[in-house]
Amino acid sequence: MTKSPDYKQLTAHLPEPVFVPLPDYRRYAEPEMLARGEAFYAEMKRRRTTRSFSNEPVPRRLIELALLSAGTAPSGAHRQPWRFVAIDDPAIKARLRAAAEEEELKTYAGRMTDEWREALHPLGTDHVKEHMTDAPWIVVLFAEKYGLNADGSHRKNYCVDESVNIAAGFFIAAIHAMGLVTLTHTPNPMGFLRELLGRGSNEKAVLVLPVGYPAPDAKVPDLQRLGAEAFIQWNVPGRSAQAAGSA
After folding, report:
1. For residue 239, how many other CB atoms are within 10 A of its CB?
2. Does residue 195 form part of some domain?
3. What is the domain range of residue 147?
4. Residue 6, in any domain of the structure
5. What does residue 243 show for φ and ψ, rounded to 5 degrees?
6. How confident is the model at residue 41 (pLDDT cuts 50, 70, 90)?
7. How far is C-alpha 147 from the chain's CA centre?
8. What is the DSSP string of the chain?
9. Which of 66, 70, 127, 238 has the fewest CB atoms found within 10 Å of its own CB?
10. 205/61 Cα distance (integer angstroms)
11. Is 3 within the bounds of a domain?
12. What pLDDT, on a 0 to 100 scale, did the predictor assign at position 247?
């Protein structure tokens, strides 16, 4: 049997990768680590999604900082396949809202199953999307399905959905940490966003994120998050940590 070449043989023709010392790492004493972890959890526990936005202006620099924070997310093969479009132009926001409501009306009226409607009912949503014109900023997140080389050929991206989702989480956390609010809006379908915003055919819209201050009378659904026991598992039932690690 012919022995398969190992990874080093397969990449021998490529330049050696360049590594640098881990930059800016800070190790904290355990009590400080615990305090920082508790503080971060307490801050994120306050986060709520709202559909009621004030039209009070938000400085562009705050949006930029949140986007830069999103850009620090890890990604498959470091392809960084996220593309953000930040919009504060009222005319563009109005066009986006009109197109989104047209699609959403079709969804709510005919595309949705009864099960889907029942799931959304506690959230009080419908096809009317005031947040798209009320919020001072609309950020649309696109996933770059594949890259384009200078000659027009395609460059494969890896773990695109996972990478873009992580970047979205970083963005949401950054927005909350600043004292702003956002909403993860997913019009269905979302192809109209690429056309309206002039994005390439190698991109697909993933999220519409209105950003701003909450309206003075903002309310949110009375919902509870899952408790730890519902979504966290430590080790594998019936197996020791050592056995699980050596399997």
Report:
1. 11
2. yes
3. 59-214
4. no
5. -65, -40
6. very high
7. 20
8. -PPPP-HHHHTTTSPPPP----TT-----HHHHHHHHHHHHHHHHT----S-B------HHHHHHHHHHHTTS--GGG---EEEEEE--HHHHHHHHHHHHHHHHHIIIIIS-HHHHHHHGGGT--S--THHHHSSEEEEEEEESEEE-TTS-EEE-SSHHHHHHHHHHHHHHHHHHHT-EE--B--SS-HHHHHHTT--TTEEEEEEEEEEPBPTT-------PPPHHHH---S-TTS-HHHHHH-
9. 238
10. 24
11. no
12. 47
In the numeric block, the tokens 């873009």 are attached to 164
> Under a CB-based contact definition with an 8 Å cutoff, are residues 78 and 156 in contact?
no
Identity (one letter) of the amino acid at 95?
Answer: R
- Number of domains forming the structure of the chain: 1
pLDDT interval class at 206 (50, 70, 90): very high
pLDDT of residue 203: 97
CA 228 to chain centre: 22
> Is 164 a member of any domain?
yes
Q: Which tokens sit at 242?
A: 């050592």
Tokens of 147: 């890259």
What's the pTM value of the predicted model, to 2 decimals? 0.90
Give the domain CATH number at 104.
3.40.109.10
84's tokens: 């953000």
